[in-house]
């Protein structure tokens, strides 16, 4: 089949890690029960987002959080993606339906911003970046971004960036945000979203905890690429995109 169902979990993250893991596990099960074949969890789903939290919530991989995801993937026979913090390096792990770890990707570009009078946040104060690309085999033609945009960058850029990347790469784009907590030291924007290759929003959450679904149609993606053949029109005689090192597996 050229179609599969994507589930994006917008989790309400608290200061109690055990509660976060329990809630995430329950929502992964709920997503699988609704036909989700790929489940995406938000950035720092097991920890409040903030540089002061990272050291105390950090884990090794394998660890408590990755073990829960492995078990959830196996229990529901469903690939499960997540983002967490390990050894003070942000890492995204991918698990297959057998519960086995497929890949561990370390975040390359840390989130350092300073918008005068609005927000300053420097991940580099406590985190170290990864130094390699990560690749694994899947039938998905889909970009997923677990992210935690804030109340300054969220309304300005969150949906705009997703629709732009979907359109200029002719792919589906899915983003998973934590649910909004107005009492938190860092208030996430929420609004987890799925955009199709035409740049249309096909599924979107509000600010509260929710699971959203989108039916990903790879034949539709192929049709879009045939109608507007961007990749076939690349001028490799003038420019090229290259990587300085091979992606890890």
Q: What is the topological layout?
A:
Elements: E1 3-10, H1 17-33, E2 38-40, H2 54-57, H3 64-76, E3 80-86, E4 89-95, E5 101-106, E6 112-115, E7 119-122, E8 142-146, H4 153-169, E9 172-176, E10 193-195, E11 201-204, E12 210-217, H5 218-227
Parallel strand pairs: 1-2, 2-3, 8-9
Antiparallel strand pairs: 1-12, 3-4, 4-5, 6-7, 9-10, 10-11
Helix pairs in contact: 1-3
Given helix and strand content, the structural type is alpha/beta
Mean pLDDT: 88
Distance between the termini: 26 Å
The rough form would be described as globular
Strand content: 25-35%
Number of helices: 5
Protein name: Omega-amidase NIT2
What does this structure look like?
With 249 residues, the chain is α/β, with parallel strands linked by helices. The protein has five helices and twelve strands. The strands form three sheets. A six-stranded mixed β-sheet has the order 5-4-3-2-1-12. The chain has a four-stranded mixed β-sheet with strand order 8-9-10-11, covered by helices on one side. Helix 1 (17-33) packs parallel to helix 3 (64-76). The longest helix has 17 residues, at 17-33. The radius of gyration is 18 Å and the shape is globular.
């Amino acid at each position: 089949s050229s179609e599969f169902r994507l589930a994006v979990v917008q989790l309400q993250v608290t200061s109690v890690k055990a509660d976060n893991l329990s809630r995430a596990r329950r929502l992964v099960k709920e997503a699988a029960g609704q036909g989700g074949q790929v489940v995406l969890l938000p950035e720092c789903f097991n920890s409040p987002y903030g540089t002061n939290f990272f050291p105390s919530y950090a884990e090794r991989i394998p660890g408590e959080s990755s073990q829960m995801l492995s078990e959830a993937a196996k229990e529901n026979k469903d690939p499960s993606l997540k983002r967490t913090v390990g050894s003070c390096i942000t890492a995204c792990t991918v698990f297959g339906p057998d519960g086995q770890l497929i890949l561990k990707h370390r975040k390359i570009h840390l989130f350092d911003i300073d918008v005068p009078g609005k927000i300053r946040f420097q991940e580099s104060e406590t985190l170290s970046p990864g130094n390699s690309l990560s690749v694994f085999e899947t039938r998905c033609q889909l970009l997923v971004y677990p992210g935690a945009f804030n109340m300054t960058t969220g309304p300005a850029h969150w949906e705009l960036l997703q629709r732009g990347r979907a359109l200029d790469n002719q792919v589906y784009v899915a983003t998973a945000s934590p649910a909004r907590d107005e009492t938190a030291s860092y208030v996430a924007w929420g609004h987890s979203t799925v955009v199709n290759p035409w740049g249309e929003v096909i599924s979107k959450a509000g600010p509260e905890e929710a699971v959203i679904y989108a039916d990903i149609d790879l034949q539709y993606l192929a049709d879009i690429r045939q109608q507007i053949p961007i990749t076939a029109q690349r001028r490799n005689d003038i420019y090229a995109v290259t990587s300085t090192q091979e992606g890890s597996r």
